[in-house]
Amino acid sequence: IQDGRFILRIRGLPWKVVSSDVVQLFTGAGFKVSGGSEGVLLQSKGYRPTGVAFVELESQEDYDKALQHPWKQHTISGRYIDAFPSNTADVRYYVMSKKPEPASSSTKVLYLRGLPWEASEDNIRAFFSRCKVSNVTLPLLESGSNLGFAYVEFASTDDARRALSMRNRNMGSREVEIYPVAEDPVDKLVKGDVLSLASYASVPTDRSHTPAISGGAFRPKNNVVDKGTDTARRLVGAVNEDGAESLLHSKGHRVLASGMPFSKNAVSNFLWPVQPTEVVKIVGKDGKPNGKVIVEFRSHEDALKATEKDGETLFTRTVKMRLFSSDSADTAAGIAEQA
């Protein structure tokens, strides 16, 4: 028990379970979950449930009894659970170890992944010596080795922007990945606070929601080839060339790009601080990607700003970009003209 909070870790849940099911299970066994569904955090890998969850109970008495409870008497979808003691430190580790969603340019917090196991806080500060670092959160094992990731908070957004330009550089023998992340609730987590468990959920808390497989994917109703279910690569969607032509000339703010990755995270990091809302790959008649993507933005200004990356190199490939925006006159030519 930490911070006066009574948190359990349970396992054995069906993959289709939602938070309200867990609350009902504990209520049926005579235990009160703190805040109802707000006191449940279903763990996941990407957006795939793992059958494991954190559950916060209201009292020490319920916590102690739940650990000793014969859970085989209370099944959920025919399965019974196992309960183990946990705490806010476990919640912090779980949330911080998950690769975060890209954030806007106003963030001061960056997520580092791929650190050498022997890297220390001093090594990280030295790595960002050109930037003013306010705080480094580097989880460690009992052996003293780190877990390969860290959160770094900078003094200003300008410092964070300079630090982000160092992505894919080496620290020791390893290439470090760097991602901007939202400061709320992550910044509170970095400072040691844990909000309601449901604040960190990436799977639905009730049956009125469905998992956002690709972060709000654009899925055209016509000419859809791939609905973007490859969560690991975060493919948002795909259209064939006819569908791409129609999409590019419809109302909106888009850029047609070649030489770009198909991952929304990779595209977001390349275009940062401009952030796309959707990334749609284009496939040929054989159903295979043809090397082009359509990147959609919230405004004409964002789309125009993104095209400043035209001609830059990404993963040894030269990126070529062309603007297709409602506020742009350059929308007459077809997709075939894109080199």
Automatic annotation (TrEMBL):
Domain of life: Eukaryota
UniProt GO molecular function: RNA binding
Family matches, as InterPro entries: ESRP, Nucleotide-bd_a/b_plait_sf, RBD_domain_sf, RRM_dom
Domain RRM, chain residue ranges per copy: 6-88, 108-183
Keywords associated with the record: Repeat, RNA-binding
PANTHER family: HETEROGENEOUS NUCLEAR RIBONUCLEOPROTEIN-RELATED
Name by which UniProt lists this protein: Putative splicing factor hnrnp-f
Source organism: Ixodes ricinus
